[in-house]
Amino acid sequence: MKLIKPEWIEHGPKESLSSLHINPEGVRVAVAGKYNAVDCIRIFRLASILDENYHKQSRLLCRIDTQCPLCVRFSYTSDILAVASRQSVLLYHLTATNPNVVNQPVQSSSSFGEFPETWRLRSSLSSGHVADVLDIAWCPSNDRYLASCSIDNHICIYSWPSATLTTTLRGHTGLVKGLAWDPTGLLLASQSSDGTVKVWSSTTWQCEQTIKEPFDGCAESTSFLRLDWSPDGTMFTTAHAKNNTFPVSACIIRGSSTVDAEFVGHRREVTCARFLPRILLINGRRRCLLAIGSKDRTLSLWLTSPRQPMCIINDFFASGILDMSWHLNETEGLTTLGVCSPDGACAFIVFNKGELGSPLTHQEMAKFYSDMYKVNIAVPTKPVANGVTPVTNGNGHSHHSQASTVKTTLANQTERRLNDGRRCIKPLCIDTPPPAPAVTPAPLPAPTPVASTSKVPSPSPQPPPTSSTTTTTTSTPSSVSTSRRTPTIPIDPKPAKGVVRSSTSSITLPSSISSTALFPPLKLLSNLIRKINNEYELRTEKSSDQVYILSCINEQTKLAQWKNVFQSPLLAIQATKHFVALVTLNETNHCSELFVLERQSGLRLYSNIVLTQTLAGLYISENTNNLQRATISVIYTTGLLSVFDLTRNSMACPILDINISHLLPPHASIVDIFTLNYTNSDTVCLITSTGHLYGFDSMLKHWTCLFHKHDFVSDFALPSDLTSSGPLSTLTKTHGATMNDDAYQKNLYSSPNRELLVSAYLETQIHRSRVLHSLREYSFWLTTLVRFLANSSLQDKSLKLKSILDHLAEHVHSTPINVNASLMPLRTKDEYQNVLNECLIILRNYDDTSTLVQHYE
Fold first, then answer.
1. CA distance 270 to 219
2. Which of 73, 296, 584, 633 is the most buried (most CB within 10 A)?
3. How do residues 515-568 score in pLDDT, each as one tens digit?
């Protein structure tokens, strides 16, 4: 991937750009805005932008001065440039080319001098609108219609080539700021400042869908709302929407009036969404590529599946992003994305062949539309011979413009991996494997943006030795082909509780890192009510002076025991007999804050804690051994967990931003999170709806499975004399009572690998006891394993027994053990000596282990 920001196109700090578009052949790119205090459109040769050594012909092909050009769009089938200018749509036609004109300065004015191309005004579509036109769109493949939207709340449809007004679509009650045709030309989507998105039929010109929910209440602070359809026509992605108070980009399925997925993480309003107009084949599966631009100066690229962004570029411009345009060069395999900003600058991202997968050809796309929508789509290309595009001048003669030739180079980059598996690239390069061979495509899934992502920093400005500043990098299809596949595990039929991982969950992109959102954010409710053991009720309400009051109501007397007040709305509340944990949502700063109160009096025990990311769940549980102690767990939408250990006089954070996304398959939920205290050692435990119990290994800083509902072997399938007593046993029996014991015993004892299965299970129990710091259970399971191995027919039992005894003897005769560095629950030499003696007593009863006994005695 290569990032190019040509400084010779920039309009200057006091100028602006409003639109950018690359023509279908990839020969020209048009930018519209104000240049040198003059409203104009400049058409550049795309090849001269992408290749800094390209000096064969002039960079600037033509300049057109016109009033207030807000949008430019090239047609699909002819050399026509549509321009939104004031309350009209102007159509410019390429009438002549002059190959003799070279090296025309980019600052040239249309009032003097010649240009390599001549564009003349052909038609002015002034009927229909009575106010400024904000966006225009040609009907794909055949240019049959040209649609325009305006601040007069209307959409005008013009027929082509007759250039006559066909109809005016009325229904929006606010400024219509964006529209887009679906790839078949059957539907037209529009987005307005009235908080709605409408879908219109091109056969009846009637509104078929109106979507309101994610757009209601969106601020009217965006000049444009440029939405787009996916190349397969199954969905479209909108511009500015809201999830609670956070700006998002919403994805809406064709024929549905609800939001299917949300692209979350931009800090300010999304202004533009653009799909690559081709379906990609990645590892034999069909994918769509989406670019999203925002007012927060961030550009993000997304794959529809497997739910991950290709890259994120922060601070790309000094201002936001207003318009984008894709082009695919099938001859050289290059994919280009052009981006423009109101700060007067534009940039181009070039992907080399194979970095994004294999795009379908025009013929394959036409067959896809024919099979899926039963429509015949013509190939939207002008005739091209030998890489040259014929252009007709005003006299009817044909000239040939030179086909674009782009040379790309890749610099050697370095890469390393962090402890959590994320890549750290310096500066912008991720190695790319060769593309997978294409196979028969499968149906395209809906876009459900989650997987680990790598943040791509923005290019650092450098003094340009030449006319453009270029930064090279490779893209990240390797993250696509090597991403972890979601395991298929049956889930319980009972209703899910707590945080649920959704198969269509959104992706969040914090400003500091690129994270993955597996869980939906908590919804902000007007009133929250929580009951505490049917004795007390916590209730929230908004007062007339715009503050939020939390009241603790006695269930018997119905009187308020205490009240507390907060300046922000309450997002979540959880409580025990002694503590209340709540999270407020600061709508101004888009952040959440955690408060801890005493349940009896409502006093605030600690200062508010500003949470690092968007909240997905809040849990609190009492310590079974100490009721004056509690565990508060905070789960973020990115799948990170933070745990706070709480008492009346102290508060600690044993777990800070630890990933739990890999513990939950889609649609699974978290049942509970609590701290198990045993022999002055604390272990944070997590229970899921799939029947799994996990414990956090504080020494290794990782999660380990303490109980697996679908284990082939378990305590329930073992004889009663092979069961222990302790925290591990208690947890297993408490959370594994729904297992079918008879079925598991039948499977175990009928398996030809029964002895291996039991041996593996006993070894696992030994290490689970270590995680819980249970000396008694560790000794029990270790001696049980020795007894089982001695009595088994395993061929390698002597090796295993010798390794166990060597381990124990090594600690008996070694220097004093560093308790903090040891992974074992045994702390002293005497404890190891006792376990070793017990093992030797067991082995004396077996003749084939007598040699081992004599050696260690």
1. 11
2. 633
3. 445 678 888 877 778 887 778 888 888 888 888 899 999 888 888 899 999 988
Q: Whole-angstrom Cα distance, residue 455 to residue 575?
A: 38
Separation between Cα atoms, residue 544 and residue 552, nearest integer Å = 20
pLDDT digits (tens, 9 = 90+) for 561-588: 999 999 888 889 998 888 999 999 886 6
Give the 3-state secondary structure of residue 695: strand
> Could you give the 3-state DSSP secondary structure of residue 683?
strand
Which range marks the domain in which residue 257 is found?
219-379
pLDDT at 85: 86
Domain annotation covers residue 201: no
> Under a CB-based contact definition with an 8 Å cutoff, are residues 448 and 307 in contact?
yes
End-to-end CA distance of the chain: 67
User: How does pLDDT run across 382-420, given as a tens digit for each residue?
Assistant: 544 333 344 443 333 344 333 333 333 334 445 566 665
Can you give 240-305 as a three-state secondary structure string?
A: EEEECCEEEEEEEECCCCCEEEEEECCCCCEEEEEECCCCEEECCEEECEEEEEECCCCEEEEECC
Which residue has tokens 């006091």? Answer: 14
At 18-60, the pLDDT tens digits run: 999 999 999 999 999 888 778 899 999 998 888 877 765 578 8
Calculate the average pLDDT of the chain: 76
Indicate left, alpha or beta for 163 from its phi (over 0: left) and psi (-120 to 50: alpha): left
Residues 354-374, buried b or exposed e (16+ Cβ, 10 A)? bbbbbbbebeebbebbeeebe
Partners of 41 in the β-ladder: 32, 64
Q: Is 91 helix (H, G, I), strand (E, B) or coil?
A: strand
| Cβ-Cβ contacts under 8 Å for 358 (sequence gap 6 or more) | 280, 281, 282, 435, 438
Distance CA(687)–CA(738), nearest Å, equals: 14
CATH of residue 287's domain is: 2.130.10.10
- Residue burial 59-78, b: 16+ Cβ < 10 Å; e: rest: bbbbbbebebbbbbbbbbbe
Tokens 């920001």 found at: 5
> Omega before 427 cis (within 30°)?
yes
For residue 311 the two structure tokens come to: 């890259």
What's the average model confidence in pLDDT over 144-170? 92
157 and 205 Cβ atoms separated by less than 8 Å? yes
Longest dimension (CA), the chain: 108
Would you state the pLDDT for residue 753?
A: 79
Predicted structure pTM score: 0.51
225 & 371 share domain = yes
User: Of 245, 309, 702, 731, nearest to 513 (Cα)?
Assistant: 309
- Which of 581, 605, 604 is closest to 594 using CA atoms? 581
Residue type, 669: S
Same domain, residue pair 541 and 650: yes
Give the position of tokens 């991950």.
308
| Pair (241, 355) in one structural domain | yes
773 part of a folded domain: yes
In a domain, 620, yes or no: yes
Rounded-to-integer distance, Cα 554 and Cα 561, Å: 6
450 neighbors 505 (Cβ within 8 angstroms):
yes
**373 with 302, same domain?**
yes
pLDDT of residue 106: 57
Phi first, then psi: give them for residue 811, nearest 5 degrees.
-75, -30
Yes or no: say if 713 and 757 are a contact pair by the CB < 8 Å rule.
Answer: yes
For tokens 């002694």, the residue is 578
* Proportion of the chain above pLDDT 70, given as a percent: 72
Percent with pLDDT over 90 in the chain? 20
Residues contacting 437, CB < 8 A, separation 6+: 284
What does 217-233 look like in DSSP terms, one character per residue? Answer: T--S--S--B-EE-TTS
640 and 713 part of one domain: no
As a whole number of Å, the CA-based R_g of the chain is 33
Per DSSP, which regions of 378-496 are E strands?
389-392, 398-401, 414-417, 423-426, 469-472
